[in-house]
Amino acid sequence: MTSETVAALLARSNRLGADPRNTNYAGGNTSAKGTEIDPVTGGPVELLWVKGSGGDLGTLKESGLAVLRLDRLHGLVDVYPGVEREDEMVAAFDYCLHGRGGAAPSIDTAMHGLVDAAHVDHLHPDSGIALATAADGEALTKECFGDKVVWIPWRRPGFQLGLDIAAVKEAHPQAIGCILGGHGITAWGATAEECEARSLEIIRTAEKFIATRGAAEPFGAVVDGFSPLPENQRHAKAAALAPVIRGLASTDKPQVGHYTDSDVVLDFLSREKLAPLAALGTSCPDHFLRTKVRPLVVDLPSTASVEEIVARLSELHAEYREEYQAYYDRHATPDSPALRGADPAIVLVPGVGMFSFGANKQTARVAGEFYVNAINVMRGAEAISTYAPIAESEKFRIEYWALEEAKLQRMPKPKALVGRVALVTGAASGIGKAIAARFAAEGACVVIADLDLEKANAAAAELGSSDVAVGVAANVTDAAGVKAAFDAAALAFGGVDLVVNNAGLSISKPLADTTEADWDLLHDVLAKGSFLVSKEAARVMTAQKMGGDILYISSKNSVFAGPNNVAYSAAKADQAHQVRLLAAELGEHGIRVNGINPDGVVRGSGIFAGGWGASRAAVYGVPEEDLGKFYAQRTLLKREVLPDHVANAAFALVGGELTHTTGLHVPVDAGVAAAFLR
Ligand code: NAD
């Protein structure tokens, strides 16, 4: 049962975390101390509930709390070996856990346990970090808060910082909290209400101080030619650049992209101080762990052409990698973890916006959010003083901290398609929907492209948030619509890696009844549609230089000569030959092109529901409801084929085991000898 203390702690954490002005995503931690009955002794035991490692205050639940015995935590002070060996104390926290201990204790546990107050909040508000990173932050803290809030110079989070804050609280009984140089704020209180009120007082007072005392244009004037482009031009340019930038940012390992063109970003990109401030990098450890020590900034005006920007990007990217390697070499010691990759996580393009990258969409989006936090911090610091982030050597110590490395090593092996972006046409129904679901389940980001936006969005929503899937309206017969779908993929996830030509429909008629319109429609959607989609896919994939996969959901009918099917089967044969032709043409770019020949997928298929089932049933002389079973009986395996079986084949082709296979067709028909490939 949740105790009152825990319930109040969770409610306070959720309230504080819900407002981005109070702390960045997943940043900061909160705690409460209280007494419970120890089930072992039946006597009282003093406990600390503190947000554990990872997780976000806004959505914190009881399972996200670590629970420690205070007596044992205080006991650590006596065995603390000094700041040089403070990291050893993290392992020692495990010996202080109460019961099963809940979530893993974070590095900030000491601060919460050692400060003599029943409730403690440690937060990363933009306004607080602005003071914390102002060159004369100590004097400004005094000016802003008098003796109510105490300045503590930068120190890497850990046991010593906990001792420092505890000592400051003891020495300043009038203080409600402190500004942690280069980092954030900590507040304390005797009750949950008092602690929360004090946190908010520090944050809001700092905001007001910056607003009233600060300069009007902290980033300097808008530079001629660097103003934001109008939205439609901005998005068109961003879509053209995204795959190129994603490709560069994925030089070491595949990354997913996120694009932001909020006013805060566009304003920063237009200002005089963009280059010098960006070069100083971010300061709060949370920020630069996700954003890398500094972003890559394109030094061309908004009016530069896509070609000019692409050419400049490859030079800047090479320089960025060299500088990152030099940064590593400057600070690495023999026991430092190996370099983790030298590509930028944040790329800023004046007039256009910010591209942020991560191993998955959530990480990419949060990196972008953190850079927005960093912009706010720089603006605040520059408004009242000069932005002075922590020293580069300290950033390195945190980025390549053994504890950080251990955290990364503990992360589970990613699923097969993590980091890959899929676009599936006709994915609002049937086979396409099953493929999209399978790809999403394997970790891919998915773009559901279909005729009807509402249906596409609904199918995307079934797969999860917009970090997992987005819907776009696209008629594959329309070149402009197809391009718009790929542009949407570029803006949503940075580009595409897996493209599935699945959109389709069926008309089954004898030759004499097949109209020109029937023929044209089937050839438009199946043959021309997949040609247009593959053409766009190849354009984006070659720009990315990350290889890729194109799949065709062709049909058994592409090889099988059945009755009353001339238009559909001929169009399917066209698709099947596109597989071979494009496999031959695109291999040099690392793009594999393969096909799947399903048959008799009745359940879940809109094609069968929409009249095709009735007409096939009539052709074979069986009742429509028995068509699935009929198809099963005429197969070698006597099994009914479902959309999931086709999705399994699609995953098998792209999941990483068939890296040396292209130009292949995989039958998913439960065995139809007449459609065997030879
Ligand atoms: P379905 O009707 O359930 O799904 C097809 C989807 O494609 C629909 O959501 C539809 O809106 C979309 N679509 C149609 N025209 C489009 C266009 N011009 N642009 C964009 N989207 C469009 O059908 P399904 O059975 O899942 O079929 C999917 C694919 O599998 C088709 O290419 C079909 O020919 C092929 N196939 C199906 C079977 C089968 O037995 N169901 C067998 C072999 C091949």
UniProtKB/TrEMBL annotation:
Q: Which residues form a coiled coil?
A: none
For this protein's source organism, the top of the classification is: Bacteria, Bacillati, Actinomycetota, Actinomycetes, Cryptosporangiales
Segments of this protein annotated with the region Disordered? 19-38
Which species does the entry assign this protein to?
Cryptosporangium aurantiacum
UniProt keyword annotation of Oxidoreductase present: yes
Compositionally skewed regions (Polar residues) per UniProt: 21-33
Tell whether Oxidoreductase is among the UniProt keywords.
Answer: yes
Q: Which UniProt keywords are listed?
A: Oxidoreductase
Domain of life, per lineage: Bacteria
Protein name, as recorded: Rhamnulose-1-phosphate aldolase/alcohol dehydrogenase
Q: Which PANTHER family match?
A: 5-KETO-D-GLUCONATE 5-REDUCTASE, SHORT-CHAIN TYPE DEHYDROGENASE_REDUCTASE-RELATED
Q: Which family does it belong to?
A: Belongs to the short-chain dehydrogenases/reductases (SDR) family.
Alphabetically, the GO molecular function entries are: oxidoreductase activity
Residues of the Class II aldolase/adducin N-terminal domain: 8-210
Q: Which InterPro entries has this protein been placed in?
A: Aldolase_II/adducin_N (IPR001303), Aldolase_II/adducin_N_sf (IPR036409), Bifunc_RhaD/ADH (IPR013454), NAD(P)-bd_dom_sf (IPR036291), SDR_fam (IPR002347)
